[in-house]
Amino acid sequence: MTFILALILALTTPSNPSGLYSMVSGIHHVTLLTRKVQANVDFYAGFLGMRLVKQTAGFEDATQLHLFYGDTVGSPGSLVTFLVWEDGSPGRVGHSQIGELSLAIDPASIGYWLTRCMSFGLRSEGPADEFGEPVLRLKDPDNIIVKLAGARDLKSPAAWDGAGVPVEHAVQRVRGVTMLTEKPAESRDFVERHFGYRFQANHGNIDRLVSQSGDIVDIRDAQGFWSGAPGTGTADHVAFRAADEKQLHKVHDALKEDGAAATNLHDRKYFESLYAREPGGTLIELATDKPGMTVDEPQPTLGTKLFVPKDPITDLKDLKVLLPQFSMPGEPRVNYRDLPFVHRFYTPPDPDGSVFVLLHGSGGNETTLMPLLHEAAPRATLLGVRGRATEEGIPRWYKRITPFSFDQDDIKSEAEAFAAFIEGAVSSYGLDPKRIVYVGYSNGANLLNSLLYLHPNLVHKAVLLRSMPVLKTFPHADLKGTDLLVISGKTDAYGKYASELETRLKQSGATVDSDVISGGHDLGDADVSIIQKWLSQQIN
């Protein structure tokens, strides 16, 4: 009888030559991408009532904000994290991705969440039965599918009740994810053999796998779906749990032995990790439980301070200017308006009321000039704007025909659109036009000097960095009362056009201060000191 029982178990249990089931247990976190940080915070910390337990600069890209939501202590298994691609391009959900995120709540809380959806003006579907559980189906601001699943036995050790959601109704932890794959059998086998999941049930084209921790991975047969494409509104990866670094290394070795495309081990400060792609293409991470979210800040103040990874490409001061700002629910915030140009505010801790409108050069974006101008004017509010023209995928302000000739109609149309943007920004954000200083670099500076003639009453103070005239014909414009600073580079290929621009501006009545740095087209500390000196003269 013992022999027969052993044979049955052998036939019904997936092979596990490395003995890895005892080494990993469940989901550590799920990482997704968002396009609007404020809307994301309002949904996950506000509506869902999860705790923001960590905000960091990205480990792969320090200029990218990374937010972690979870329970009171940021327990492994409760974490949902977001890479913030502010105003980034949307992705496409398809096979080779995680398609749905499921969060565990008490089954008795379904009615509470139905009512909360209505009070927040959010559309929900359900409750529907999924594998015997009541499930509410929602979409977050990026259209990511978020399911609230009534899972009675899946509890957080420290549910968060600090966001207005009663603790008995709180999101407990991650219930699971849905993996979209064109190779369902191979994907299932990979997750079972290497990450400790076991088959639980099948419904149609979905196999449900369950971990020792009780969370689930639904393997969905996505044959015939389109392929996934990275971008906002998609998942980056799902991370499974390893108790410690020793277990992480064992799984890493087993993946290599199995021929999986495992990457090198990574130190993510809050956990050690490795990555691998399962046969269907979904990115999987394995992360250790420790050291955890409290390694660099105490539990009472989790999530209130920005942290940076080791050896970031820039310092914390500059990163705070570059990264998108947000407010927690109930706090004052910038309510962004739908205006013709993508734009970003940076508000310093003690603003002095001045506003700098920043126009980047070719290949830059709305944040490119922020560190430079923050250094020049630390108390100024910065409004960075992104040009709408593109050239080989990089932002510009107008179309270029050759390096020294430009599409005249495009300059005029984009100048008109920018003037409308400024009018809308002044009205929507309550800006004082008299306290606005425009700063343009290269391509952005050239749009500015064109604006002076195409819309002569718009710009009254401006800094033109590495600028040249780009209009073929200049309309008459009375620029009296317009104060300008022109900074050119001695070795800049465009520098020879600066004197022509200065002469024209002066002839039109503008007050023009000019300076030449010893370098070329790039910006640097010399520009900062010249701008600071000019600003002090404007105030005095």
Please write out the topology:
Blueprint: H1 2-12, E1 24-34, H2 37-47, E2 51-57, E3 65-70, E4 79-84, E5 97-105, H3 110-119, E6 125-130, E7 133-139, E8 145-150, E9 173-181, H4 184-195, E10 198-203, E11 206-210, E12 216-221, E13 235-242, H5 245-257, E14 266-267, E15 271-277, E16 283-291, E17 306-307, H6 316-322, E18 343-346, E19 355-359, H7 370-376, E20 381-385, E21 389-391, E22 394-396, E23 400-402, E24 405-406, H8 408-429, E25 436-441, H9 443-454, E26 461-465, E27 483-489, H10 498-507, E28 511-517, H11 525-539
Parallel strand pairs: 1-4, 2-17, 5-8, 9-12, 13-16, 19-20, 19-25, 25-26, 26-27, 27-28
Antiparallel strand pairs: 1-13, 2-3, 3-4, 5-9, 6-7, 7-8, 10-11, 11-12, 14-15, 15-16, 18-20, 21-22, 23-24
Describe the protein's architecture and organization.
By secondary structure, this protein is α/β, with parallel strands linked by helices. It folds into two domains: 27-307, Roll (2,3-Dihydroxybiphenyl 1,2-Dioxygenase, domain 1), CATH 3.10.180; 336-537, Rossmann fold (3-Layer(aba) Sandwich). The protein is 24% helix and 30% strand. It is built from eleven helices and 28 strands. It has helices at 2-12, 37-47, 110-119, 184-195, 245-257, 316-322, 370-376, 408-429, 443-454, 498-507, 525-539, and strands at 24-34, 51-57, 65-70, 79-84, 97-105, 125-130, 133-139, 145-150, 173-181, 198-203, 206-210, 216-221, 235-242, 266-267, 271-277, 283-291, 306-307, 343-346, 355-359, 381-385, 389-391, 394-396, 400-402, 405-406, 436-441, 461-465, 483-489, 511-517. Strands 14-15-16-13-1-4-3-2-17 form a nine-stranded mixed β-sheet. The protein has an eight-stranded mixed β-sheet with strand order 6-7-8-5-9-12-11-10, with helices on one face. A hairpin with a 7-residue loop joins strand 2 and strand 3 (65-70). Helix 7 (370-376) packs across helix 11 (525-539). The chain is elongated. The N and C termini lie far apart (98 Å). 45% of the residues are buried. The model is unreliable at 1-23 (pLDDT under 50).
